[in-house]
Amino acid sequence: MSSMKFTAGAPFPNIQLPGLDGEPISLGTPAEGSDWRLVIIYRGKHCPLCTRYLNEVEKLVADFLKLGIDVVAASADSLEQAQEHKSNLTASFPIAYRLTIENMQQLGLYISNPRSAKETDHPFAEPGLFVINDKGRVQLVDISNGPFARPELSTLLSGLSFIRDPENNYPIRGTYS
User: Fold this and answer.
1) Where do the Thioredoxin domain residues begin and end (predicted)?
2) Where are the domains of the chain?
3) What is the DSSP string of 67-83?
4) pTM to 2 decimals?
């Protein structure tokens, strides 16, 4: 199976998923009141490191919102799995589920099969993080092939604060071709 490398500065694909609140979620579209979006792709309820990471994100949601950046998370879990996982999360941000293999490939994510039926019952995305700017373009991207390598959240927040400051005139990086 091949996977594309997502291009920094490219338009974020239009991916619509169901949300746990019953409303559809367009992953790349910020909620009203924000003009940027932080999209976190996590492995699923079977991953304790994902649970910890999403709970750490929650501690900084207000700080991201102050920068005009809302947060959404998504996985390939079923509705039942996502609902069960939500009971272990402090997350106030929207949680989407049913990310398809095609969606994962569109985002250039690594995809894994479960090690056993005890882990989960479907292929799942390894962690990915995307920051979508006010033009609908990918400002930052971080993709990992395992749950152990993810951006440190306070560093991410600090960097986004720098990027969002108009005095810094900070461009999208990694666009050399």
Assistant:
1) 6-162
2) 20-98+151-166
3) TTEEEEEE-S--HHHHH
4) 0.94
71 neighbors 59 (Cβ within 8 angstroms): no
Query: Is residue 152's pLDDT more than 80?
Result: yes
1 pLDDT exceeds 60?
no
Give the domain 20-98+151-166 fold: Glutaredoxin (3.40.30)
Using one digit for the tens of pLDDT, what is the confidence trace for 78-101? 999 999 999 999 999 999 999 999
Burial class (CB in 10 A: 0-12, 13-18, 19+), 7: middle
Helices (H), the chain: 48-66, 79-86, 101-106, 153-164
Burial of residue 108, with CB atoms counted within 10 A of its CB: 0-12 exposed, 13-18 middle, 19 or more buried:
middle
CB distance 122 to 114 below 8 Å: yes
